[in-house]
Amino acid sequence: xxxxxxxxxxxxxxxxxxxxxxxxxxxxxxxxxxxxxxxxxxxxxxxxxxxxxxxxxxxxxxxxxxxxxxxxxxxxxxxxxxxxxxxxxxxxxxxxxxxxxxxxxxxxxxxxxxxx
Amino acid sequence: xxxxxxxxxxxxxxxxxxxxxxxxxxxxxxxxxxxxxxxxxxxxxxxxxxxxxxxxxxxxxxxxxxxxxxxxxxxxxxxxxxxxxxxxxxxxxxxxxxxxxxxxxxxxxx
Lengths: 116, 110
Known about the structure:
Chain A has strands at about 5, 10-15, 20-25, 30-35, 45-50, 55, 65-70, 75-80, 90-95, 95-100, 100, 105, 110-115. By secondary structure, chain A is mainly beta.
């Protein structure tokens, strides 16, 4: 079990640029989540995949944000035309979902985005 | 619409038990209590969860009151590496995601 892996760990970009983050979940996990965390706050839910299907998007996920999980394995989160308010830690989590069972989410160590 | 209430911060002495309280007075019958912690610059780490019975694992013990309106996470022998933000989360059986509050900042002091 190598855990949830996120890449890169840190990203500094200029306002207006596009950025993409990658998440590799625990291999047998069929559910994948993206969260955002700003300083001093708890993580906030952004979106959720079951296999390759994106089943929920938070209102926090503006039109500039898009997430994909094309083969039901790794996922990418893209932010277009970044703004300074996008500066945050972006966390990915995965879990093994079965009918009637809610297993714990396992988180990666996040990608810290700084928009200058 | 916070489902849990936790103290903002608390200090613990190294080597002593740390007892972290959480109130969840509106919890319903099919909602579980989950605990996570987040060490600085890392992602949240799962600790333990329970429905109504007390639970214990290698990291901690979870004590849930009989009326389920509150719970206590116990770290039996706190170490400096237990310094973190601890989150108490109520999660329904039909909830696939977790909703985090602000948590309790726990500082273990030598």
